[in-house]
């Protein structure tokens, strides 16, 4: 009975191990499937990011083109309005001189990103809240309204020019004696009143233009002030950055010195790359038979650098004996070679190689 129980227990353990192996294989298979799905999603995400970047670049190009076209369009409207005033037209068209600034994005905050172009084109930030987008009918109505406004300005200018030509013909007839004296006097008086009205209208138009000029001047002054302030902030931040870099360099040097003082000469071969910004390769072994006097002379020549003196000072105090261990000799010579490779790449290195060694 006991042996049967043992066999049952062994079979039970075997079945449990097989179930665990099957579970592990299932989990591994599911993990592989999940990894494949994750990789596919990553690829799709990268593709969508590329498409989004392309669309964003196109939108920026469209927006820049639209801003340039609107500037020229607004200039055309201003010219038509001012020409109409000079021709003796009414002042009702002066309201057309007030244009919206299409380079300001705050007025377009209500527009979704994909419809900013249409919002700028329609000179409106209105979006249908029920549909969440601009309808085709609204686009057509806005374009029709803008087109009709330009047509009205053109008609107003044509009417003003026609009225001016008719007045000039009557004045020419009066001056050439084609009219009676009474009619000529009436025409001159009428023309005098007309000129007074034209002058008054031109003064009002000039006042409007002056207001726009003052507004633009204030905006330019604000921009110049902001630019100067930003430049001063950049200069201040640059100074802070330089100070932080200097403090970081000093802290790095102190850290190297403290680590070498703590670990001794065994640390220098690992930290010498850090001491010279990680740009020096110290594969060449030091001469183990160099005498203390020659090594001391090399150290004295390299004491021109404060950093090198601070690095070597713990080893000079630590190794004051005439005969140094080979590892200590190699460590000090490695510091010297690293210093010359970092600051004086060739001259001092050649002097060290030409100096005779003591055997």
Automatic annotation (TrEMBL):
Its EC number is 2.3.2.27. Residues 24-58, 234-261 form a coiled coil. Pathway: Protein modification; protein ubiquitination. InterPro entries: E3_ubiquit_lig_Bre1. It catalyses: S-ubiquitinyl-[E2 ubiquitin-conjugating enzyme]-L-cysteine + [acceptor protein]-L-lysine = [E2 ubiquitin-conjugating enzyme]-L-cysteine + N(6)-ubiquitinyl-[acceptor protein]-L-lysine. It is found in: Nucleus. Signal peptide: none annotated. The keyword Metal-binding applies. Keywords: Chromatin regulator, Coiled coil, Metal-binding, Nucleus, Transferase, Ubl conjugation pathway, Zinc, Zinc-finger. GO terms for cellular component: HULC complex; nucleus. One of its GO terms (molecular function) is zinc ion binding. PANTHER family: E3 UBIQUITIN-PROTEIN LIGASE BRE1-LIKE 2 (PTHR23163:SF8), RING FINGER PROTEIN-RELATED (PTHR23163). This is E3 ubiquitin protein ligase.
